[in-house]
User: Which sequence fits this backbone?
């Protein structure tokens, strides 16, 4: 039995030696065992390198595709934009197409420099690894061959890896040069890049809801814009400035019709529009519509008659100018209305000074503005045209240095009733007459102010007075007294008011 077992073991050993060869350790097998792991690690590294590189290449392919899609989308939108925005959008389309082409060149360089070199390295590593595997169990190649292959593989990896890095630098440098050349040839793009911060600041001031100009009085608009009532609404002020700076010589200004669609669009977004982008005709037509559609018009029928009466009551031009100055400087209407009227009249005066070029003289401008400002019938229209022509012609003498409403800087006591001292001093021969029992305190020639001076007589207000002055803005509370700026003007009587004798 023991002999049989021994024979079986001997046969098994011979069979294994025949199938696998003898595993006798040799210098070749030892060298293979020593360097096999480093070859495996090198192969793993470059396989991962290829995976990451392919992902980068795929990302560039996606970027290139989406840049093309974005350029096509922007090109489609061009047809829907206003004419003044098409040029900027066309520049954007061209830039996207340029970027798409530049990224395509960069991708091709990376493919040539990375993918091809990595594939070559992996192929060479595979050859060396296959040779080493054959010599793991049985020496197939001599030691010289193995050492040479390992050394040469190291040289190839080093050289190809350097080529990969250099291609990376070359590709990005080429991309940078191409972009730089493009921007150098399109200087406006550099200027556009420098406008980012100012544009971002402007964005902070853009609100979805603007100040409403439609159906609002001038005073309500000024309050919404936190402006004083001796100022103009922002949009109206800007329109007048644009016309004065650029269009005084435009033929038919205020008479040439504009696109109704554009005027309607601008009118309903006056407070948020970039007015410089609109044509002269659109701007002046919108200004006229704004004035025409003010609640109650700029001057209602009764106010218009007051102005006409004042104008007719004087004979010479100098007298008319003086009377109109007095009318406009008093508290006849809310001061913001006179401020707007003054601004338009002065603009018309500047336009008429260039009538030899723009063909718009005082009368033509009066025809444009009279029906817009005054609620008058056709029967009286000729009289108002004559008055408006005169006001435009004499706008400088009438409005220059004109203080509209109460002055803004000096303050005096302004009680709602005339001031009566708590203790009346003993009258002397030089003192003013005291009020009788049947007299109003205001009928005295003067009384004694708390400041020690004589006060002006304040006439009593006639309750039946037709043109009763109503305060337009609340007075200011300072300490325990209400203050108004400078002196309280005399209340006009019916007769003096209609004659234009307003202090």
Assistant:
């Amino acid at each position: 039995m023991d002999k049989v077992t021994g024979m079986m073991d001997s046969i098994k050993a011979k069979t294994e030696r025949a199938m696998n060869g003898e595993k006798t350790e040799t210098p070749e097998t030892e060298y293979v065992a020593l360097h096999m792991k480093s070859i495996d690690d090198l192969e793993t590294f470059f396989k991962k390198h290829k995976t990451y590189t392919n992902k980068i290449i795929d990302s560039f392919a996606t970027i290139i595709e989406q840049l093309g899609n974005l350029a096509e989308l922007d090109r489609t939108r061009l047809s829907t934009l206003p004419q003044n925005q098409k040029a900027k959008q066309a520049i954007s389309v061209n830039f996207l197409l340029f970027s798409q082409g530049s990224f395509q060149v960069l991708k091709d360089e990376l493919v040539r420099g990375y993918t091809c070199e990595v594939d070559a390295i992996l192929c060479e590593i595979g050859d060396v690894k296959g040779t080493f595997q054959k010599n793991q169990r049985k020496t197939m190649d001599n030691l010289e061959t193995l050492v040479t292959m390992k050394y040469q593989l190291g040289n190839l990896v080093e050289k190809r890896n350097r080529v990969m890095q250099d291609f990376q630098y070359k590709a990005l440098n080429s991309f940078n040069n191409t972009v730089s050349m493009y921007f150098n040839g399109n200087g406006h793009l550099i200027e556009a890049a420098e406008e980012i911060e100012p544009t971002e600041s402007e964005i902070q001031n853009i609100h979805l809801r603007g100040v409403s100009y439609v159906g609002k009085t001038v005073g309500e608009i000024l309050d919404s814009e936190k402006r004083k009532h001796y100022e103009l609404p922002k949009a109206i002020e800007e329109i007048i400035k644009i016309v004065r700076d650029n269009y005084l010589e435009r033929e038919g200004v205020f008479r040439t019709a504009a696109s109704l669609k554009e005027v309607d669009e601008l009118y309903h977004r006056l407070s948020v529009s970039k007015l410089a982008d609109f044509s002269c005709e659109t701007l002046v037509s919108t200004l006229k519509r704004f004035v025409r559609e003010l609640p109650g018009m700029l001057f209602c029928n009764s106010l218009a008659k007051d102005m006409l009466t004042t104008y007719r009551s004087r004979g010479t031009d100098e007298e008319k100018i003086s009377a109109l100055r007095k009318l406009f400087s008093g508290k006849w209407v809310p001061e913001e209305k006179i401020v707007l009227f003054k601004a338009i009249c002065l603009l018309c005066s500047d336009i008429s000074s260039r009538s030899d070029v723009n063909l718009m003289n005082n009368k033509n401008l009066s025809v444009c503005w009279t029906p817009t400002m005054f609620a008058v019938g056709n029967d009286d229209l000729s009289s108002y045209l004559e008055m408006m022509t005169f006001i435009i012609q004499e706008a400088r003498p009438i409005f220059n240095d004109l203080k509209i409403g109460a002055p803004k800087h000096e303050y005096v006591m302004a009680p709602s009733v005339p001031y009566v001292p708590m203790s009346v001093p003993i009258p002397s021969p030089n003192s003013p007459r005291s009020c009788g029992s049947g007299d109003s305190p205001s009928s005295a020639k003067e009384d004694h102010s708390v400041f020690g001076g004589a006060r002006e007589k304040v006439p009593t207000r006639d309750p039946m007075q037709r043109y009763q002055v109503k305060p337009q803005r609340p007075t200011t509370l300072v300490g325990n007294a209400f203050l108004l700026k400078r002196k309280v003007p005399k209340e006009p009587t019916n007769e003096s008011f209609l004659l234009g004798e307003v202090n």
Remarks:
- The chain has two domains: 25-200, 218-399.
- The CA atoms of residues 371 and 381 lie 8 Å apart.
- Residues 25-200 form a domain with the Four Helix Bundle (Hemerythrin (Met), subunit A) fold (CATH 1.20.120).
